[in-house]
What does this fold into?
Amino acid sequence: MSTQLSTQLLDPEYAFRPAQPVLSAEERNRLQGIALTLRRDIIEMTAAAQSGHPGGSLSAADIVTCLYFSILRHRPQDPHWPDRDRFVLSKGHAAPVLYAALAEAGYFPREQLQTLRRLHSPLQGHPDMRKLPGVEASTGSLGQGLSIGNGMALAGKLDGRDYRVYVLMGDGEIQEGMVWEAAMTSVHRHLDNLTAFVDYNQLQIDGRVTDIKSLTHVGRRFAAFGWHVLEIDGHDLDAIHAAVQDAQRTKGRPTLIVAHTIKGKGVPFMEDQVEWHGTAPKPDQAKEALAQLGAGGKEAAQA
Ligand SMILES: Cc1ncc(C[n+]2csc(CCOP(=O)(O)OP(=O)(O)O)c2C)c(N)n1
Ligand SMILES: [Mg+2]
It folds into this structure.
Protein backbone atom coordinates (compact mmCIF):
# COMPACT_ATOMS: atom_id res chain seq x y z
CA MET A 1 0.00 0.00 0.00
CA SER A 2 1.26 3.41 -0.90
CA THR A 3 1.43 6.01 1.89
CA GLN A 4 -1.35 8.58 1.73
CA LEU A 5 -0.88 12.22 2.65
CA SER A 6 -3.07 13.59 5.38
CA THR A 7 -4.68 16.83 4.28
CA GLN A 8 -4.44 17.87 7.95
CA LEU A 9 -0.79 18.55 7.20
CA LEU A 10 -1.74 21.62 5.22
CA ASP A 11 -1.56 24.90 7.12
CA PRO A 12 -5.24 25.94 7.47
CA GLU A 13 -4.21 29.52 6.75
CA TYR A 14 -3.09 28.64 3.22
CA ALA A 15 -4.63 25.23 2.51
CA PHE A 16 -5.71 25.11 -1.10
CA ARG A 17 -7.90 22.48 -2.71
CA PRO A 18 -9.90 23.16 -5.82
CA ALA A 19 -13.64 23.12 -5.04
CA GLN A 20 -14.12 20.87 -8.04
CA PRO A 21 -11.74 18.98 -10.31
CA VAL A 22 -10.04 21.24 -12.84
CA LEU A 23 -8.84 18.43 -15.12
CA SER A 24 -11.09 16.35 -17.32
CA ALA A 25 -11.00 12.61 -16.54
CA GLU A 26 -9.16 12.07 -19.81
CA GLU A 27 -6.54 14.70 -19.05
CA ARG A 28 -6.02 13.38 -15.50
CA ASN A 29 -5.57 9.86 -16.88
CA ARG A 30 -3.06 11.09 -19.42
CA LEU A 31 -1.05 12.93 -16.76
CA GLN A 32 -1.21 9.99 -14.34
CA GLY A 33 0.17 7.77 -17.10
CA ILE A 34 3.05 10.17 -17.73
CA ALA A 35 3.82 10.50 -14.01
CA LEU A 36 4.03 6.72 -13.83
CA THR A 37 6.36 6.62 -16.83
CA LEU A 38 8.62 9.19 -15.15
CA ARG A 39 8.64 7.14 -11.93
CA ARG A 40 9.54 3.98 -13.82
CA ASP A 41 12.29 5.87 -15.65
CA ILE A 42 13.69 7.17 -12.33
CA ILE A 43 13.99 3.61 -11.03
CA GLU A 44 15.50 2.27 -14.24
CA MET A 45 17.99 5.13 -14.62
CA THR A 46 19.28 5.04 -11.06
CA ALA A 47 19.45 1.24 -11.18
CA ALA A 48 21.44 1.38 -14.43
CA ALA A 49 23.81 3.96 -12.95
CA GLN A 50 23.92 2.25 -9.54
CA SER A 51 24.00 5.80 -8.20
CA GLY A 52 21.69 8.81 -7.92
CA HIS A 53 18.75 10.13 -5.96
CA PRO A 54 15.47 8.26 -6.31
CA GLY A 55 13.62 9.59 -3.21
CA GLY A 56 13.42 13.28 -4.05
CA SER A 57 12.93 12.50 -7.73
CA LEU A 58 9.86 10.39 -6.98
CA SER A 59 8.40 13.00 -4.60
CA ALA A 60 8.54 15.64 -7.34
CA ALA A 61 7.22 13.46 -10.19
CA ASP A 62 3.64 14.75 -10.11
CA ILE A 63 4.67 18.42 -9.99
CA VAL A 64 7.16 17.94 -12.83
CA THR A 65 4.58 16.01 -14.87
CA CYS A 66 1.99 18.76 -14.51
CA LEU A 67 4.51 21.42 -15.43
CA TYR A 68 6.02 19.78 -18.51
CA PHE A 69 2.91 18.12 -19.88
CA SER A 70 0.14 20.60 -19.24
CA ILE A 71 1.42 23.93 -17.95
CA LEU A 72 4.72 25.00 -19.50
CA ARG A 73 4.71 26.76 -22.83
CA HIS A 74 7.72 25.15 -24.50
CA ARG A 75 9.01 23.68 -27.75
CA PRO A 76 11.21 20.61 -27.27
CA GLN A 77 12.43 20.98 -30.88
CA ASP A 78 13.44 24.60 -30.22
CA PRO A 79 14.81 24.58 -26.67
CA HIS A 80 16.14 28.15 -26.85
CA TRP A 81 12.87 29.69 -28.07
CA PRO A 82 12.95 33.10 -26.32
CA ASP A 83 9.29 33.06 -25.28
CA ARG A 84 9.41 29.65 -23.60
CA ASP A 85 8.43 29.31 -19.97
CA ARG A 86 11.41 28.43 -17.78
CA PHE A 87 11.66 25.65 -15.21
CA VAL A 88 14.56 25.67 -12.76
CA LEU A 89 15.17 22.48 -10.80
CA SER A 90 16.81 24.14 -7.83
CA LYS A 91 17.05 20.78 -6.00
CA GLY A 92 19.41 19.59 -8.72
CA HIS A 93 20.03 16.17 -7.17
CA ALA A 94 16.53 15.25 -8.40
CA ALA A 95 17.99 15.32 -11.93
CA PRO A 96 16.47 11.91 -12.82
CA VAL A 97 12.93 13.30 -12.74
CA LEU A 98 13.97 16.24 -14.92
CA TYR A 99 15.75 13.99 -17.43
CA ALA A 100 12.79 11.62 -17.54
CA ALA A 101 10.46 14.54 -18.29
CA LEU A 102 12.74 16.03 -20.94
CA ALA A 103 13.07 12.67 -22.69
CA GLU A 104 9.34 12.05 -22.55
CA ALA A 105 8.71 15.54 -23.98
CA GLY A 106 11.11 14.81 -26.85
CA TYR A 107 14.18 16.91 -26.00
CA PHE A 108 16.41 13.87 -26.56
CA PRO A 109 15.97 10.14 -27.27
CA ARG A 110 14.72 8.01 -24.39
CA GLU A 111 17.63 5.55 -24.83
CA GLN A 112 19.94 8.26 -23.52
CA LEU A 113 18.32 7.95 -20.08
CA GLN A 114 20.38 4.81 -19.54
CA THR A 115 23.57 6.90 -19.66
CA LEU A 116 22.79 8.71 -16.40
CA ARG A 117 25.96 9.64 -14.54
CA ARG A 118 28.30 8.07 -17.10
CA LEU A 119 31.48 9.85 -18.04
CA HIS A 120 30.84 12.29 -20.95
CA SER A 121 27.08 11.71 -20.88
CA PRO A 122 25.01 14.92 -21.08
CA LEU A 123 22.98 13.41 -18.23
CA GLN A 124 25.31 14.20 -15.38
CA GLY A 125 24.45 13.52 -11.75
CA HIS A 126 23.32 17.12 -11.48
CA PRO A 127 21.82 19.07 -14.42
CA ASP A 128 24.29 20.88 -16.66
CA MET A 129 22.78 23.52 -18.96
CA ARG A 130 25.91 23.47 -21.14
CA LYS A 131 25.53 19.77 -21.87
CA LEU A 132 21.81 19.12 -22.22
CA PRO A 133 19.35 21.26 -24.21
CA GLY A 134 16.21 21.86 -22.15
CA VAL A 135 18.09 22.28 -18.88
CA GLU A 136 17.59 25.95 -18.01
CA ALA A 137 20.14 26.20 -15.20
CA SER A 138 23.02 24.17 -13.86
CA THR A 139 22.04 23.27 -10.34
CA GLY A 140 23.06 20.93 -7.56
CA SER A 141 24.65 23.37 -5.20
CA LEU A 142 21.49 23.87 -3.18
CA GLY A 143 19.99 27.30 -2.55
CA GLN A 144 20.69 28.99 -5.87
CA GLY A 145 17.61 28.26 -7.98
CA LEU A 146 15.36 30.98 -6.61
CA SER A 147 17.98 33.64 -7.36
CA ILE A 148 18.38 32.24 -10.87
CA GLY A 149 14.59 32.28 -11.29
CA ASN A 150 14.47 35.88 -10.07
CA GLY A 151 16.94 36.85 -12.76
CA MET A 152 14.94 35.10 -15.47
CA ALA A 153 11.67 36.61 -14.28
CA LEU A 154 13.15 40.10 -14.07
CA ALA A 155 14.70 39.71 -17.53
CA GLY A 156 11.28 38.71 -18.89
CA LYS A 157 9.75 41.89 -17.52
CA LEU A 158 12.57 44.09 -18.80
CA ASP A 159 12.36 42.49 -22.24
CA GLY A 160 8.56 42.79 -22.36
CA ARG A 161 8.14 39.01 -22.75
CA ASP A 162 5.24 37.22 -21.14
CA TYR A 163 6.94 33.92 -20.31
CA ARG A 164 6.62 32.56 -16.79
CA VAL A 165 9.27 31.10 -14.52
CA TYR A 166 8.84 28.09 -12.23
CA VAL A 167 11.36 27.07 -9.57
CA LEU A 168 11.31 23.82 -7.59
CA MET A 169 13.13 23.78 -4.25
CA GLY A 170 13.50 21.10 -1.59
CA ASP A 171 12.41 21.65 2.01
CA GLY A 172 15.90 20.85 3.30
CA GLU A 173 17.27 23.15 0.64
CA ILE A 174 15.45 26.19 1.98
CA GLN A 175 17.58 26.07 5.10
CA GLU A 176 20.12 27.85 2.86
CA GLY A 177 20.30 31.56 3.75
CA MET A 178 20.53 32.58 0.12
CA VAL A 179 16.96 31.37 -0.45
CA TRP A 180 15.65 34.02 1.93
CA GLU A 181 17.63 36.81 0.32
CA ALA A 182 16.15 35.73 -2.99
CA ALA A 183 12.67 35.54 -1.45
CA MET A 184 12.98 39.20 -0.48
CA THR A 185 14.11 40.15 -3.97
CA SER A 186 11.19 38.38 -5.69
CA VAL A 187 8.74 40.47 -3.67
CA HIS A 188 10.70 43.71 -3.95
CA ARG A 189 10.72 43.30 -7.75
CA HIS A 190 7.02 42.36 -7.88
CA LEU A 191 7.86 39.18 -9.79
CA ASP A 192 4.32 37.95 -10.39
CA ASN A 193 5.65 35.96 -13.36
CA LEU A 194 7.54 33.75 -10.88
CA THR A 195 6.06 30.70 -9.12
CA ALA A 196 8.13 28.69 -6.69
CA PHE A 197 7.34 25.24 -5.34
CA VAL A 198 8.70 23.72 -2.14
CA ASP A 199 8.73 19.93 -2.34
CA TYR A 200 7.74 19.58 1.31
CA ASN A 201 8.56 15.91 1.86
CA GLN A 202 9.92 16.49 5.37
CA LEU A 203 13.17 14.59 4.73
CA GLN A 204 16.60 15.78 3.71
CA ILE A 205 19.91 14.00 3.14
CA ASP A 206 20.45 12.61 6.61
CA GLY A 207 17.22 12.80 8.51
CA ARG A 208 13.94 14.60 9.12
CA VAL A 209 13.90 18.30 8.41
CA THR A 210 12.29 18.97 11.80
CA ASP A 211 15.24 17.31 13.57
CA ILE A 212 17.95 19.04 11.57
CA LYS A 213 16.65 22.60 11.29
CA SER A 214 12.93 22.86 11.74
CA LEU A 215 10.89 24.55 9.04
CA THR A 216 7.41 24.58 10.50
CA HIS A 217 5.02 27.13 9.04
CA VAL A 218 7.09 27.54 5.93
CA GLY A 219 4.07 29.10 4.21
CA ARG A 220 3.68 31.71 6.92
CA ARG A 221 7.35 32.58 6.67
CA PHE A 222 7.11 33.28 2.95
CA ALA A 223 3.79 35.08 3.43
CA ALA A 224 5.48 37.35 5.98
CA PHE A 225 7.96 38.27 3.24
CA GLY A 226 5.02 39.28 1.03
CA TRP A 227 4.55 36.14 -1.09
CA HIS A 228 1.19 34.82 -2.13
CA VAL A 229 1.12 31.34 -0.55
CA LEU A 230 -0.83 28.16 -1.29
CA GLU A 231 -0.42 24.78 0.42
CA ILE A 232 -1.43 21.70 -1.52
CA ASP A 233 -1.17 17.94 -1.69
CA GLY A 234 1.75 17.75 -4.11
CA HIS A 235 0.56 14.43 -5.53
CA ASP A 236 -2.90 15.74 -6.44
CA LEU A 237 -2.73 16.68 -10.11
CA ASP A 238 -5.90 18.80 -9.92
CA ALA A 239 -4.55 20.72 -6.92
CA ILE A 240 -1.19 21.35 -8.63
CA HIS A 241 -2.95 22.56 -11.72
CA ALA A 242 -5.41 24.79 -9.88
CA ALA A 243 -2.65 26.26 -7.70
CA VAL A 244 -0.63 27.22 -10.77
CA GLN A 245 -3.72 28.79 -12.34
CA ASP A 246 -4.20 30.77 -9.13
CA ALA A 247 -0.56 31.89 -9.31
CA GLN A 248 -1.08 33.00 -12.92
CA ARG A 249 -4.01 35.18 -11.81
CA THR A 250 -2.08 36.73 -8.93
CA LYS A 251 -0.75 40.17 -9.80
CA GLY A 252 2.03 42.20 -8.19
CA ARG A 253 3.71 39.44 -6.18
CA PRO A 254 5.24 36.00 -6.60
CA THR A 255 3.49 32.81 -5.53
CA LEU A 256 4.88 30.04 -3.36
CA ILE A 257 3.22 26.64 -3.59
CA VAL A 258 4.05 24.50 -0.57
CA ALA A 259 3.56 21.04 -2.02
CA HIS A 260 3.18 18.42 0.70
CA THR A 261 4.71 15.26 -0.69
CA ILE A 262 6.06 11.85 0.26
CA LYS A 263 9.68 11.15 -0.47
CA GLY A 264 9.90 7.99 -2.60
CA LYS A 265 6.22 8.32 -3.56
CA GLY A 266 4.90 5.38 -5.57
CA VAL A 267 7.38 2.76 -4.37
CA PRO A 268 6.10 1.66 -0.96
CA PHE A 269 9.43 0.35 0.34
CA MET A 270 11.07 3.70 -0.49
CA GLU A 271 8.32 5.94 0.87
CA ASP A 272 9.28 8.27 3.72
CA GLN A 273 12.58 6.44 4.21
CA VAL A 274 15.64 8.67 4.41
CA GLU A 275 17.91 5.85 3.19
CA TRP A 276 16.44 6.28 -0.28
CA HIS A 277 17.55 9.90 -0.56
CA GLY A 278 20.72 9.04 -2.41
CA THR A 279 20.82 5.27 -2.74
CA ALA A 280 20.22 3.51 -6.03
CA PRO A 281 18.17 0.34 -6.08
CA LYS A 282 20.07 -2.90 -6.67
CA PRO A 283 18.78 -4.97 -9.62
CA ASP A 284 16.40 -7.05 -7.47
CA GLN A 285 15.15 -3.94 -5.66
CA ALA A 286 14.60 -2.19 -8.99
CA LYS A 287 12.57 -5.17 -10.17
CA GLU A 288 10.44 -5.02 -7.05
CA ALA A 289 10.02 -1.25 -7.34
CA LEU A 290 8.86 -1.54 -10.95
CA ALA A 291 6.43 -4.27 -9.99
CA GLN A 292 5.05 -2.10 -7.20
CA LEU A 293 4.70 0.89 -9.50
CA GLY A 294 2.86 -1.26 -12.01
CA ALA A 295 2.75 -0.98 -15.76
CA GLY A 296 1.85 2.45 -16.89
CA GLY A 297 2.15 5.16 -19.45
CA LYS A 298 3.51 3.75 -22.67
CA GLU A 299 3.64 0.15 -21.38
CA ALA A 300 -0.08 0.20 -20.52
CA ALA A 301 -0.98 1.82 -23.83
CA GLN A 302 0.91 -0.89 -25.72
CA ALA A 303 -0.54 -3.76 -23.67
C1 LIG B 1 24.98 23.80 -0.91
C2 LIG B 1 24.79 22.32 -0.75
N1 LIG B 1 24.97 21.75 0.46
C3 LIG B 1 24.80 20.41 0.60
C4 LIG B 1 24.49 19.63 -0.46
C5 LIG B 1 24.35 18.12 -0.30
N2 LIG B 1 22.95 17.73 -0.38
C6 LIG B 1 22.47 17.14 -1.49
S1 LIG B 1 20.83 16.79 -1.39
C7 LIG B 1 20.76 17.37 0.20
C8 LIG B 1 19.47 17.36 0.98
C9 LIG B 1 18.39 18.12 0.32
O1 LIG B 1 17.18 17.92 0.97
P1 LIG B 1 15.88 18.45 0.32
O2 LIG B 1 16.08 19.84 -0.16
O3 LIG B 1 14.79 18.27 1.31
O4 LIG B 1 15.72 17.53 -0.95
P2 LIG B 1 14.68 16.34 -1.24
O5 LIG B 1 14.14 15.84 0.06
O6 LIG B 1 13.62 16.92 -2.08
O7 LIG B 1 15.49 15.30 -1.97
C10 LIG B 1 22.00 17.86 0.61
C11 LIG B 1 22.28 18.43 1.92
C12 LIG B 1 24.31 20.27 -1.72
N3 LIG B 1 23.98 19.59 -2.81
N4 LIG B 1 24.46 21.62 -1.83
MG1 LIG C 1 13.12 17.11 1.42
